[in-house]
Amino acid sequence: MRVPVTLSTSLCVVLLVFAGVVTCSPVERNPRRRSQSKSLCAQLIQPSGYPCSEHSVQTKDGYVLALQRVSAHTGGDIKAIPGPPILLQHGLFQGGDTWFVNSKEQSLGFILADHGFDVWVGNVRGTHWSHGHISFSEKDKEFWDWSWQELALYDLAEMITYVYSITNSKIFYVGHSQGTIMALAAFTHPYIVEMVEAAALLCPISYLGRVSSQFVLRMVNLHLDQVLLAMGVHQLNFRSDIGVQLLDSVCDGHMDCSNLLSAITGKNCCFNESRVDFYLEYEPHPSSSKNLNHLFQMIRKGTFAKYDYGWWGNLKQYGRHQPPAFDLRRIPKSLPLWMGYGGNDALADLKDVKQTLKELQSEPELLYLDHYGHIDFILSVTAREEVYNNLIGFFRSSGMFST
């Protein structure tokens, strides 16, 4: 039996791991799908009345990434922004648009600009807003040969370096979900963390061994990540028929997918369902099958480590039989950290978060909301009052902010 048509859609699969969209309509035929030929600034940020400029950065392995720079809608020159730079990093199957698709009053990107921050928006390789590769086409399997490991050590490293060099200032950092995995891995490298003043992590993830999401666990047990790689499916684009087929195979006769959102992310208290059609105009973004495979390796093993290529592959890649772990104790105690997490999050499980906290040298400032789920931290109708005011207060306590 197939899932109902309102659920049998590629976009629903976006919620597999760390996604932030709740919708289930046939998006590949959505006539309102935003044009990929226009920039994020032109499509979403400038029409909302905010000055925005586009920037590009090239990674060491040849990917060309897009960054957007946003300031408050005061009519002033973007180069004269008084506030400190802050980099926003989206989660899996998302792009920089995720920080602006809620209402202007509730979208963190707009809120930070209104508070005087010099807002920079990251877009990792493979997303619609980034610009490809200097050698490979998106049709080449080599283009998709990466996981969050490369996103952390290449994409995030280059984006931080670029913002640091342009602004001549240490930066603040905000990541959600996969954006926190990238940050925690990157911050174990001194040359990266030296450019960061402080970091806020929404739904922080380094360990995934205690994920309770029914839907994700079923996919892990079915080894669907390995099946995709064996089939030669290197790009995970959930606007294709493969996403629908994947959803059907997980749900069909085995679990109740009538409430797919709760089955995947846990119960979200305050998701803004009135804007679902608008979210669909921008998301989901593609990722790689290898990335999903790496995340599922973490769930199976309970480790926070580099990609596992197998016994011989690891020996060739790392000079050892097991992939090296990312040692959270290498993140300097001097780096101020803030973490927001929720009691209903089935992806960033409380026990996994506590394991992360136990291994860190520092004691991060914590915001725990018992009623919040994984999506609430970026798309809640109450996030400004319950999350962002606290987050902004953390950054303002830094000596970088003169007001």
From TrEMBL:
Report the active site residues: 177, 345, 374
Specify the domain of life of the species encoding this protein: Eukaryota
- Residue ranges constituting the Partial AB-hydrolase lipase domain according to the UniProt record: 42-102
Q: Which Pfam families match?
A: Abhydro_lipase
Q: Which GO terms describe its biological process?
A: lipid catabolic process
Q: Does the keyword Lipid metabolism apply?
A: yes
Q: PANTHER family of this UniProt entry? A: LYSOSOMAL ACID LIPASE-RELATED (PTHR11005)
What family classification does the UniProt entry report for this protein?
Answer: Belongs to the AB hydrolase superfamily. Lipase family.
The name of this protein is Lipase
> Which species does the entry assign this protein to?
Protea cynaroides
Q: What is the lineage of its organism?
A: Eukaryota, Viridiplantae, Streptophyta, Embryophyta, Tracheophyta
